[in-house]
TrEMBL record:
Pfam families: ABC_tran
Name of the featured protein: Putative ABC transporter ATP-binding protein YdiF
Residues in ABC transporter domain copies: 20-50
Organism expressing this protein natively: Lacticaseibacillus paracasei subsp. paracasei Lpp126
Domain of life: Bacteria
Taxon lineage: Bacteria, Bacillati, Bacillota, Bacilli, Lactobacillales
Gene3D superfamilies, per the entry: P-loop containing nucleotide triphosphate hydrolases
Keywords recorded for this protein, A-Z: ATP-binding, Nucleotide-binding
A GO molecular-function descriptor: ATP binding
Xref: InterPro entries: ABC_transporter-like_ATP-bd, ABCF_ATPase, P-loop_NTPase
Length: 50
């Protein structure tokens, strides 16, 4: 069962694109990790999805 699905998610600040066209699907019981350098937009992506 899919518990989260997102398609073509994107975000930019002051004309600087953090990410674009993000597609994801999370299944029930899945374990996920979000890894990347500071300032890459990890927290921003999670805020958009919640």
């Amino acid at each position: 069962m899919i518990i989260l699905q997102a398609q073509q998610v994107g975000r930019s600040f002051n004309g600087n694109e953090l990410f674009a066209n993000v597609n994801l699907e999370i299944q029930n019981g899945a374990r996920i990790g979000l890894v990347g350098p500071n300032g890459i937009g990890k927290t921003t992506l999670l805020e958009i999805l919640t």
